[in-house]
Amino acid sequence: MNLKPYQDFAKDKLGGFKDIQLLVTAFTHRSYLNEHRKTVFEHNERLEFLGDAVLELIVTEHLFCHFQEAEGILTNWRSALVRTESISAAAASEGFEPLLRLSRGEKRGSERARQQILANCYEAVIGAVYLDQGYEAAKTFVVRTLIPSLKAVLENGLWLDPKSRLQEMAQSRDNATPVYKVIEESGPDHDKTFVVGVFIDEAEKGRGSGPSKQAAQVTAAVNALRHYLD
To answer: Of the residues 48, 52, 94, 132, which is catalytic?
Structure first.
């Protein structure tokens, strides 16, 4: 295989890498093995498992050292920061997608599936960095790529339950209660995508999609909140 893209990534984004094959494994999705059984023997799920724990420790340490809020609030902030949407966005901005090793079927997957794969890969890369270079290097990577999004999380109240916050704002400003309606359903039963709109005074204020109606409602609420925050 051509290792140069991974070597370039390691040099540009991580300051180098001792075991480049470890980094390649971090970008290898389970589905890729099914099409390359004779040449590829390991996927990134074990690295993801490790990276998830390292990521949570790094974010927890950062919040503890920089903020004085109570444990419950810091827990909510941490959850908002390490959710799939946040870490997949960090992975995308770092140029992960061209390096992903996926099956042909996964490459044609839904937007939600793509987000999940990117988020899992981000955690796997953290695990690889931790093994290859240690905790401080993993911390440097997370602080550079993910921690900056904390500002938007706090400013926009994204750590709160979006549906509850939208209801409070809609009732206080418009004296109305949000109503959620399914606009579209697509995909097979095992990989369905729902599109939901949220309406206030019969006017659509936001739209979201997700693998369940509840997930789509939350995304719609987040988008509708921008109507009040912008």
So the answer is: 52
Residue 185 CA to residue 73 CA, distance in Å, equals 35
Residue 8 a catalytic site member: no
Pairwise CA distance, residues 223 & 162, whole Å: 9
Strand partners, 129: none
Q: pLDDT tens across 81-111, in order?
A: 998 889 999 999 999 999 999 998 888 877 7
Catalytic residue, candidates 48, 106, 123, 132 = 123
- The H-assigned helical ranges of the chain are 4-14, 20-26, 30-35, 45-66, 71-81, 84-93, 104-107, 111-133, 135-145, 150-155, 162-174, 213-229
Regarding the domain delimited by 4-155, which CATH topology (the fold level of the hierarchy) does it fall under? Ribonuclease iii, N-terminal Endonuclease Domain; Chain A (1.10.1520)
Q: What is the pTM of this model?
A: 0.74
Where do the structural domains in the chain lie, given as residue ranges? 4-155, 162-229
* Order of strands, sheet of 179-186, starting from the edge strand that comes earlier in the sequence: 179-186, 193-200, 203-210
Annotated catalytic, 123? Answer: yes
Question: What residues have CB less than 8 Å from 16, skipping those under 6 apart?
Answer: 10
104-138 pLDDT per residue, tens: 888 887 777 889 999 999 999 999 999 999 999 99
CATH number of 162-229: 3.30.160.20
Nearest to 136 by CA among 23, 24, 15, 25: 15
